[in-house]
Design goal:
Layout: E1 4-6, H1 15-31, E2 36-38, H2 52-56, H3 64-76, E3 79-87, E4 94-101, E5 108-112, E6 118-120, E7 126-128, E8 133-134
Parallel strand pairs: 1-2, 2-3, 4-8
Antiparallel strand pairs: 3-4, 4-5, 6-7
Helix pairs in contact: 1-3
């Protein structure tokens, strides 16, 4: 049987602090025998406002959080599943991606969120994730 761990923390707009929080979760989970560690959506950052997000987002291949977690995955021999924002060709919108990191390779698997959270409740809130996020594609 393989032990999986699910970690939760409150991401901020400080990517390096979020990386340290994620690495701590991975280290603790591995110490308890986990072989898979699942981290939340948007583990790299939660922007303080809509203008901050595009300034914080990075390309996946050079992403600070992913590079740090790849090192932790290798160090502890665990698979890591983590949600990040990913830069797109649209300077005002990002991709909401989930990445699987392997402990023994730089190879990753990636899923980009297809169905965005858009809601318009009559006489209530209007929330449009599609204003800031590019939907993924199938295949």
């Amino acid at each position: 049987m393989v032990l999986a761990a699910v970690g939760q923390f409150c991401a901020t707009s400080n990517v390096l602090a979020n990386l340290e929080a994620c690495k701590t979760i991975v280290t603790r989970a591995a110490a308890q025998g986990a072989k898979v560690v699942c981290l939340p959506e948007a583990s790299d950052y939660i922007a303080s406002n809509t203008e901050e997000g595009p300034r914080l987002v990075e390309w996946r291949k050079t992403n600070t959080l992913l590079q740090g977690l790849q090192g932790s995955a290798k160090e502890h021999g665990v698979h890591v599943s983590v949600g990040i924002h990913e830069k797109t060709d649209d300077p005002k919108r990002v991709s909401n991606a989930h990445v699987w990191l392997y402990p023994d390779a730089d190879h990753t698997q990636i899923y980009r969120k297809l169905h965005l959270y858009d809601v318009d409740i009559p006489n209530g809130p209007i929330i449009k994730e599609s204003n800031s996020t590019v939907p993924g594609t199938k295949g």
